[in-house]
Design goal:
This protein is mainly α and about 200 residues long. Helix content is about 55%, strand content about 0%. It folds into two domains: about 5-80; about 100-195, no CATH class.
Length: about 200
C-alpha cells in the first residue's frame, strides 16, 4: 500500500497551520496585557490564569499524544510497504464473489466457479488462476501455531494460524513458492468430495 504524498503534505500543512494559529493568538493576547496591572490583580484573576494553565497543559498533552500516535502510524505504514507479505502483491488481481446471493444452488455455484477459473486461467496475460474460500490475508483463525513435528515452539514464536480452502493453481497464482511437497490436484479434490458425500 502506497502512502499518498499529496494527502500527507496536506495533513502536515494543516497541522502546522493549526499549531501556529492556535499558538500565536494566545501569545499576541499575552503580549498586549498590562503586566503591572496583572501583578496587582485580584484573586479572581489568579483563578482565571490557573484555569487557563490547566487548559494549556491538557492541550499540550493531547497534542503530544496525537503526534506520537501519528508517528507510530506512519512508521507502521512504512514497515508494511517493505515487509515480505508471503505472496506476490504487485502482480496479482483478486476479487470476491458469492453466487448464493443471486440464488445459485451449491452445485450450480461450484460449476460456475470452475468455469470462471478456466476462463480466468486462459487469459493471455494470466500466469495462473486459483480460487479460495477466503480473501487474501483473511481466514478462520484457529488460535494455535503449527510447527514441525517434535519442535518446541516458544512463546515469542506464536502465530494465529488461519484456515483457507483453495484450488490447484492457487499458490502459483499468488506467487507463493512451495518449499516442500507438491500442489493439490483436482483428482484429490473430487475424491475427497465423493468420500465426504
Amino acid at each position: 500500500m502506497d502512502v499518498d504524498t499529496r494527502v500527507l503534505a496536506f495533513a502536515g500543512s494543516a497541522s502546522l497551520l493549526t499549531t501556529i494559529l492556535f499558538g500565536l493568538l494566545p501569545a499576541i493576547y499575552a503580549a498586549r496585557q498590562n503586566l503591572a496591572g496583572s501583578l496587582r490583580g485580584s484573586r479572581a484573576a489568579t483563578t482565571r490564569v490557573a484555569g487557563r494553565n490547566i487548559l494549556v497543559v491538557a492541550q499540550i498533552a493531547v497534542c503530544v499524544l496525537l503526534l506520537v500516535g501519528t508517528s507510530l502510524l506512519v512508521r507502521t505504514f512504512r514497515h508494511m510497504e517493505t515487509m515480505n507479505a508471503g505472496f506476490d502483491r504487485d502482480h496479482i488481481v483478486t476479487f470476491t464473489l458469492d453466487p448464493s446471493l443471486t440464488g445459485y444452488t451449491p452445485e450450480r455455484a461450484r460449476l460456475f466457479s470452475k468455469q470462471l477459473l478456466e476462463k480466468a486461467g486462459s487469459l493471455p496475460t494470466a500466469v495462473a488462476a486459483g480460487l479460495a474460500s477466503r480473501g487474501v490475508m483473511r481466514g478462520t483463525g484457529v488460535k494455535t501455531t503449527f510447527g514441525v513435528a517434535g519442535a518446541v515452539i516458544g512463546r515469542n514464536e506464536f502465530l494465529n494460524s488461519s484456515l483457507n480452502t483453495v484450488t490447484p493453481g492457487y499458490f502459483d497464482a499468488m506467487g507463493m513458492r512451495i518449499v516442500a511437497g507438491r500442489d493439490l490436484t483436482w483428482a484429490e479434490i473430487y475424491r475427497s468430495r465423493s468420500e465426504s458425500s
